[in-house]
TrEMBL record:
The lineage of its organism: Eukaryota, Metazoa, Spiralia, Gnathifera, Rotifera. It is a multi-pass membrane protein. InterPro entries: Sugar_P_trans_dom, TPT_transporter. The chain crosses the membrane at residues 44-63, 83-101, 122-140, 146-167, 174-191, 197-221, 233-255, 267-288, 300-321, 327-346. Keywords: Membrane, Transmembrane, Transmembrane helix. This is Sugar phosphate transporter domain-containing protein.
Length: 370
């Protein structure tokens, strides 16, 4: 049972009076056990809800973005515009929740909506990485199949290890590097098999690698820029997306997306804008459901859940689009998933060992004679 479970049990409102517990110990013991079981059941329900919510939002967002980016029904070749609009939706949601934070208790954690240009400038390096990340992420989704999307973006862990060493000077253990090797093997085997099936886009594969690189850089710059917004994740989300809305405008002009957008036959189509808006809402919601799942479980469980979600997403895509895959194609997915899961386990074990060692050293120092 996790520490939060113990906290939940200890804070239970079903506490018995001390006098009753002395006179009737069997009843008191039974009531306490029932209370503990009820609290534990409640905890399991919360964990299951958090995982299901994370899976639903994440998988729905991937399929909806795929529909918007490359569906034959949409036929809008403007991925930058689609991504820009999602950032606008996020800023709009931040504005609404920021103005409700003092009226509705549920939104009390959201910062009051305010744009400080100095903070926006300080966050700009992160925003550049963020914009590059979501551009290449959506281009990967546009040019690769949903079933291959996971493998196409699987080098994030490898890029994270590389940049952690190059930028922060932190070394990675041989066990963790072995897990990275398994991921790399799965990636290249998947590329080979996708090419053999005739469904590989080399540009899409390149975008997948670029997306992995910028996801890793985005994580590092997020750590650096959080102090600029008083370590408030939602405030960082606001400034990041505000900057992105501005950065996308010249990019759309440079890549000639204004003409396709203004000549788009469904520009005033309500279902199209509903789908666009829902994609933006889901994009914003990913920040919440990710944090909620980590809060209800742990970072390691979140990684395991994300890995399992990716495999389910792949299976759903294969079934939904009636795709036929080879055995080696499936093996490449297993390599990627296995390597990612093992990497998370190895890093968690190493962090726990380091934490215990530091605690033992502190205890030993405190017991030394003065």
């Amino acid at each position: 049972m996790s520490s939060s479970s113990y906290s939940l049990l200890s804070n239970s409102s079903d506490k018995l009076d001390a006098e009753i517990s002395i006179k009737e110990p069997p009843t008191s013991s039974s009531a306490a056990m029932n209370s503990s079981n009820e609290a534990l059941k409640k905890r399991y329900v919360q964990i299951a809800f958090a995982v299901i919510l994370y899976w639903f939002v994440s998988i729905t967002m991937v399929f909806l973005n795929k529909y918007l980016l490359s569906s034959k029904d949409i036929k809008l070749d403007a991925p930058l515009f689609i991504t820009w609009y999602q950032c606008v939706v996020t800023v709009g949601i931040c504005a609404v929740l920021g103005n409700l934070n003092k009226r509705v208790a549920l939104f009390s954690k959201f910062p009051t909506f305010k744009i400080d240009l100095k903070i926006a400038r300080d966050v700009l390096p992160l925003s550049v990485m963020f914009v590059a990340m979501i551009i290449f992420n959506n281009l990967t989704l546009k040019h690769l199949t949903v079933s291959f999307y996971m493998v196409g973006r699987s080098l994030t862990t490898v890029a994270n290890v590389a940049f952690t060493y190059l930028m922060l000077g932190q070394k990675t253990s041989y066990k963790a590097l072995g897990c990275c090797g398994l991921i790399v093997a799965g990636f290249f085997l998947g590329i080979d098999q996708e090419n053999a099936l005739g469904t590989l886009s080399m540009f899409g594969a390149f975008c997948g690698v670029a997306s992995s690189v910028f996801v890793a850089l985005n994580a590092i710059y997020t750590t650096r820029c959080l102090p600029c917004v008083d370590n408030n994740v939602w405030r960082l989300c606001l400034y990041n997306n505000f900057n992105a809305c501005i950065l996308f405008l010249p990019l759309m002009l440079i890549f000639g997306e204004l003409t396709p957008v203004f000549t788009f036959p469904k520009l005033f189509n309500i279902p199209f804008w509903f789908a666009m808006t829902m994609a933006g809402v889901l994009g914003f919601s990913m920040g919440y459901v990710t944090g909620y799942q980590i809060q209800m479980t742990s970072p390691l469980t979140h990684n395991v859940s994300g890995t399992a979600k990716s495999y389910v997403q792949t299976l759903l895509a294969v079934v939904a689009y009636s795709e036929v895959k080879t055995s080696l194609w499936w093996i490449s997915n297993i390599f990627v998933l296995g390597g990612s899961g093992l990497f998370a386990h190895v890093r968690a074990t190493e962090m726990k060992r380091t934490h215990n060692t530091n605690n033992n050293n502190e205890n030993n120092l405190s017991t030394l004679p003065k």
